[in-house]
Amino acid sequence: MKKSSVLIAGGGSTYTPAIVNMLIANLDRFPIRKLKFYDIDGERQKITADACAIILKENAPEIEFLATTDPETAYTDVDIVMAHIRVGGLPMRGLDEKISLKHGLVGQETCGPGGIAYGMRSIGGMIDNIDYMDKYSPDAWMLNYSNPASIVAEACRVLRPKSKVINICDMPIGLEDRMSKMIGLPSRKDMIVRYFGLNHFGWWTHITDKEGNDLKPAIMKHIAEKGYVVDESEYAYDNRESWKYSHMKARDLVRIMPEYIPNTYLKYYLFPDDEVAHADPEYTRADEVIDGREKSVFSACREIAAKGTAKDSLIRKDNHATFIVDLACALTTNTKERMLLIVENKGAISNFPSDAMVEIPCLVGKDGYEPLAVGKIPTFQKGLMEEQVAVEKLVVEAWVEGSYLKLWQALTLSKTVPGANKAKEVLDDLITANKGYWPELR
Ligand code: NAD
Ligand code: G6P
Ligand code: MN
């Protein structure tokens, strides 16, 4: 089997060490000859890189490893780019969340004003990385899971339509893992699913086992009673209690949409008042991540570097991130695996705009992806999606044109914002906070 050269863009991410462990565990099906990290913050990346160098030396010494802040060194001789950058870092995520909450609006990483603000930061960083790939390794594929994925995907469609970028999200995968556990199946791969929507905004319409037996009623019954919660103990580490709240909130989502299984992120659009009431404007999810995942991952990394060994390290193997390997395998060995990707609709949802970026099942092989037909979707979902797609398109247009008006319209149209006055208030605060990250708006 051909060995790949892999670049992790955003090498200093809190997810990087667990992904490296996962890649090592999957070398039999996705062999790697070279692994590189690229980040604009060399100091942050050094923490994960020093630890991963040791992890690799102990577990896969044949893999050549390097970490760099130089785009040419990073992007030369690469087959697969795994991109998980966060422009502005967790501190800017915190501001997105807090500024929104200060105005009584949903304060969230990828939804509502926070997601719009993050989108305005991410587009430039993503385009830089795509351009490096196109320049130094034009045959490579970029598997992007940098957020906000729907806005990033729309920016790719508009600004770099020919670049080989595939946008994917782990949320459906994580929720499918939960569903399989709810009904006692060994793996989510024992289920065949049909799904449609936008990123962080979608529904499962059908779930069967391999024999075609309908699994949806049993899953729905579990969600109606316990939401997506399957194991209470999992929330104990890394400040994950707020995820429990999200998983429980799915109970309300199936009350208003009993026909399909919902992505939990829909709660920000359908129950924004509950979200605001439940949030602490002084201590948001960004703080939880800084005090939880970032602290635990980085201290484990520092410990590996200090001891010179990763034996007994607390760094986990991110099992659910194996979808990244599935995707890389599909592209390198033509598996034609069926995966949910964020792609241009082009008629797949027949009663929805052709140029909308939607999240739907696709078959993936060495020439890329082939979306599967979804057909017609119902009025309620269609209406919600049309509004949200317009928001995402307006954000990208605002970024490209430097248009204050279009960003104001985007915020006004978001279901999480009650009207143009509120939209303007929060926009003006976000502009001040994002100086240097957003293009100048006129
Ligand atoms: P993080 O801040 O810990 O790590 C992100 C890294 O990206 C940082 O080291 C930062 O310096 C670097 N970076 C910023 N701008 C860059 C640029 N232009 N080029 C290269 N590197 C750059 O963030 P995190 O919590 O680990 O999350 C990383 C990203 O992954 C976020 O965008 C997050 O939303 C996303 N994410 C996506 C999914 C998904 O399924 N789509 C799942 C989890 C996380
Ligand atoms: C899920 C979503 C990601 C999002 C992440 C946030 O994995 O699919 O898009 O970035 O949750 O998790 P966090 O722990 O950082 O709040
Ligand atoms: Mn996601």
TrEMBL record:
What are the residue boundaries of the Glycosyl hydrolase family 4 C-terminal domain, all occurrences included?
Answer: 195-417
Q: Keywords in alphabetical order, please.
A: Glycosidase, Hydrolase, Manganese, Metal-binding, NAD
Any matching Pfam family: Glyco_hydro_4
Q: What's noted on cofactor binding?
A: Binds 1 NAD(+) per subunit.
Q: How does it assemble?
A: Homotetramer.
First and last residue of the signal peptide: none
Q: Which domain of life is it from?
A: Bacteria
Q: Which Gene3D superfamilies match?
A: Lactate dehydrogenase/glycoside hydrolase, family 4, C-terminal, NAD(P)-binding Rossmann-like Domain
Organism encoding this protein? Enterocloster hominis
Q: Which family does it belong to?
A: Belongs to the glycosyl hydrolase 4 family.
PANTHER family given in the database record: 6-PHOSPHO-BETA-GLUCOSIDASE-RELATED, MALTOSE-6'-PHOSPHATE GLUCOSIDASE
Q: What is this protein called?
A: 6-phospho-alpha-glucosidase
Q: Which cofactor does it need?
A: NAD(+)
